[in-house]
């Protein structure tokens, strides 16, 4: 179904892992214990949706450095009768009390604190997926997570590193009384946990049990909502119980772009998956390089296409009720041709065009019955806002930090409005049939990772593991491009000769963390996980 090679002897570059094959079910994510929780759901008679939700819930316990109960999630789900691709946007909106005038004199939204907190959508997203597509009782999906929260689990190496970095940052920047409960919750010993050290959180377990028993009602209209409200009132925050009570997840129509005969699917705005699709639309007008994997011209064009796509995303992507243009306008073939024409032999400083009207965890799951899920969940920038609701284990995210303070901008801060959102699940289909879910975590790296992984598979014939292993680049603004140290020297030099300001960095999670599951031509499942993290593929 996909033009890739699974020849273990084929040399593209040194692969650090091998593709995992299975037939009855598979879960790929960045933390082994969470992947196993999803596989356990499959073995209990659940489907891929149950597996994805169980994994997502478990990740709030075993990887709190990247996501939590107080975050958001999005999903692309291949299921239903007849089978089709469904989109879930469970990202929250700003509080009714949010006020742009209160931010006067500031150049940008803060990164930490109450002003950044929007309504968390994750718990409602779990229940929506379970209710509409799952087979197991909702409470069953919480059992592994509650067990790990109560009894403890050994902290993995990558998470310990991220936890220590977050602790150092918060110790320096989160000095107000409102932040004290984060330290009480996540650093009760006065430091971050060490690799292999057992971590437990009884408060987190109790909170998850309440969400399970009440089908998430306690979080939005019950005991937990009251605790969030009391915490917010204590510090005069915008967020209130009324905001929580008004929230419901949205089922949305996924958007797509055709690329080399495949459809690449993303969630529509307020997410920025459209950025990856715009870049691919531009790139499909160029021929596939004949010179191999490390063709400098192709990498130059990739970077330029992504810069142009991001310039448009920064100008137009917002809560769709406030956007000047539609996603379809940004994805039109004519507009892609206009943007493609701007790419020359040297690097440019990008500007947005004018289309005519017309810190994150990722989960890929599949079962033997054909259900497949691409799901992503995040608190943003690690633990999020630096705020934790006392005695609950709930770290509140900081998605409101992505609002613009420019009056009249589509993404300007306003009441009950969803901010520009960075988390994006991806999915591939061909001729109306599923190929599989894919994702690359990492804030503004995500569309860049999506484009590189898709092109690695569809243009260069890499299998899923090779596509994830391949060294990456990341455009960070202006003409500056960061590249991993494993990128061949001639590519880095070639990009510099074309006017790019090339910064070489060690291979790390800076360049994203991803997972992929594809259905092979034999009807089996092939899974891969990111070498830049502690990820695993749990298979059955």
Keyphrases for this structure?
21 strands; 540 residues; alpha+beta; globular; 17 helices
- Which residue ranges are poorly predicted, with pLDDT under 50 across at least 5 consecutive positions? 8-13
Mean pLDDT: 94
Number of strands: 21
Ends apart, CA distance between termini: 21 Å
Strand content: 15-25%
Provide a count of the helices. Answer: 17
Shape: globular
- What is the strand arrangement across the widest sheet? 1-20-19-15-14-9-8
> Structural class of the secondary elements?
alpha+beta
Rounded to an integer, what's the Rg over CA atoms? Answer: 22 Å
- Tell me about the biggest sheet? 7 strands, antiparallel
Summarize the amount of helix as a percent range. 25-40%
What does this structure look like?
- With 540 residues, the protein is of the alpha+beta class.
- It has a domain at 34-95 and 114-251 and 361-400.
- 33% of the residues lie in helices and 19% in strands.
- The chain has 17 helices and 21 strands.
- It has a seven-stranded antiparallel β-sheet. A seven-stranded antiparallel β-sheet has the order 7-4-3-11-10-2-21, with helices on one face. Strands 16-17-18 form a three-stranded mixed β-sheet, covered by helices on one side.
- Helix 11 (273-283) packs across helix 15.
- The longest helix is centred in the middle third of the chain and has 21 residues, at 296-316.
- The radius of gyration is 22 Å and the shape is globular.
- The two termini are 21 Å apart.
- Residues 8-13 have low confidence and may be disordered.
């Amino acid at each position: 179904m996909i033009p890739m090679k699974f020849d273990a002897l084929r040399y593209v570059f040194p692969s650090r892992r091998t593709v995992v094959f299975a037939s009855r079910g598979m879960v790929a994510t960045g933390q082994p214990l969470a992947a196993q929780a999803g596989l356990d759901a499959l073995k209990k008679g659940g489907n891929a949706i149950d597996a994805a939700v169980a994994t997502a819930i478990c990740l709030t316990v075993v990887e709190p450095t990247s996501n939590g109960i107080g975050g958001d999630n999005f999903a692309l789900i291949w299921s239903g009768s007849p089978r089709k691709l469904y989109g879930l946007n469970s990202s929250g909106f700003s509080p009714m009390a949010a006020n742009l005038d209160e931010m006067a004199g500031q150049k940008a939204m803060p990164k930490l604190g109450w002003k950044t907190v929007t309504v968390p959508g994750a718990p409602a997203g779990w229940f929506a997926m379970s209710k509409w597509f799952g087979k197991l009782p909702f409470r069953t999906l919480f059992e592994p997570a509650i067990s790990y929260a109560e009894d403890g689990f050994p902290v993995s190496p990558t998470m310990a590193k991220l936890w220590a970095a977050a602790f150092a940052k918060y110790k320096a920047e989160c000095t107000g009384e409102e932040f004290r409960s984060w330290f009480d919750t996540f650093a009760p010993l006065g430091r971050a946990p060490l690799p292999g050290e057992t971590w437990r959180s009884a408060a987190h377990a109790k909170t998850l049990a309440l969400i399970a028993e009440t089908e998430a009602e306690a979080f939005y209209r019950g005991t937990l909502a009251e605790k969030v409200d009391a915490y917010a009132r204590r510090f005069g925050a915008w967020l209130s119980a009324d905001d929580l009570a008004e929230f419901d997840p949205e089922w949305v129509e996924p958007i797509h772009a055709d690329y080399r005969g495949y459809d690449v699917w993303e969630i529509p705005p307020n997410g920025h998956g459209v950025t990856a699709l715009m870049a691919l639309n531009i790139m499909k007008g160029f021929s596939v390089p004949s010179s191999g994997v490390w063709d400098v011209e192709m990498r130059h064009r990739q970077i330029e296409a992504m810069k142009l796509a991001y310039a448009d995303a920064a100008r137009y992507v917002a809560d769709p009720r406030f956007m000047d243009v539609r996603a379809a306008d940004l994805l039109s073939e004519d507009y892609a041709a206009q943007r493609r024409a701007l790419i020359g032999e040297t690097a440019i400083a990008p500007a947005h065009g004018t289309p005519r009207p017309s810190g994150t965890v990722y989960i890929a799951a599949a079962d033997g019955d054909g259900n497949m899920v691409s799901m992503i969940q995040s608190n943003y920038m690690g633990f999020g806002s630096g705020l934790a609701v006392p005695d609950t284990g709930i770290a509140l995210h900081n998605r409101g930090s992505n609002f613009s303070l420019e009056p009249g901008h589509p993404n300007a801060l306003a009441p009950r409005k969803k901010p520009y959102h960075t988390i994006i699940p991806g999915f591939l289909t061909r001729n109306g049939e599923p190929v599989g879910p894919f994702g690359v975590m990492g804030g503004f790296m995500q569309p860049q990772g999506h484009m590189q992984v898709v092109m690695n598979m569809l243009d260069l014939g890499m299998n899923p593991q090779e596509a994830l292993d391949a060294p990456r680049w990341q455009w960070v603004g202006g003409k500056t491009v960061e590249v991993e140290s494993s990128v061949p020297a001639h590519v880095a030099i070639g990009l510099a000769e074309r006017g790019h300001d090339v910064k070489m960095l060690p291979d790390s999670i800076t360049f994203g963390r991803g997972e992929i599951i594809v259905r092979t031509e034999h009807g089996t499942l092939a899974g891969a996980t990111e070498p830049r993290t502690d990820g695993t593929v749990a298979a059955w």
